[in-house]
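quick one before i forget lol
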Amino acid sequence: MCNFPNYIHQYANIGKAKELLESLKLRLDEPSAFNDPFEFLPKTKLTKEIIFNDNNVKPSKILWDAFSSSPVELIAQLPETFEKLAQINLVKKCKQIINEYRICCFSEIDDSILMWGHYSRQHTGVVITFSAAMDYWEHNLCKVNYSPKRVSVSLLDSIFTDNDTIVDEQWQRDLLVTKSEQWSYEREWRFIKNKNKCPQDEKGTSYMPIDRKAIKSIILGCRISKENREYMINMAKNWKDVSVYQSIPDNKKYLMRKKLI
């Protein structure tokens, strides 16, 4: 079990930040919209040991229904036919997982030069800091695992999954929280929620109401406009327990400092 950080941070452009702070709604995105093409895409492997008898796991209905031939003729067509069917079933299962869940991304750190550039529109946005210790997050806050290897799935296991339960096996859970180690600098945490348990706004975007007490500070990008800077300062004045910081590039090192306003 991983240790929860005291705080989690969300890098955001001004538009997204204003929307969150004004509505107190945490937007949850569809996994298919993420920028990493390897998200939720497992490595597959064909299990060689295929045994059909009453003492072992039986082929699922999808396998038998696909053929009108006898079991002997069916086995003779393996592994090519079996692999094709298993691949189809696995793709369907992965799509089901993607369609069922919505995700909001955070980081353990608030001073990443790369994330400021990528997610806060070239340092013109903000970083909003939340308390991760609150019950608000329930059991939906998960740490991302960075790995040099993709999640491995046995095609045999995928085709023998007869139930429709989402994320009922370890490989399915791993899909939602595993990324390439090249992304490890993000030190990401994900708030993951079934879309059926999330309300939707007028645009059809899933969200969760945010507990205002969970918001602890706002860090202003070093290139934020004067207008947006004043907006954020005035917004925080309404919440006496929310601190506002100005992000400032260090004079000597590749570091982002922050100064309390």
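fyi The first helix runs from residue 14 to 23.
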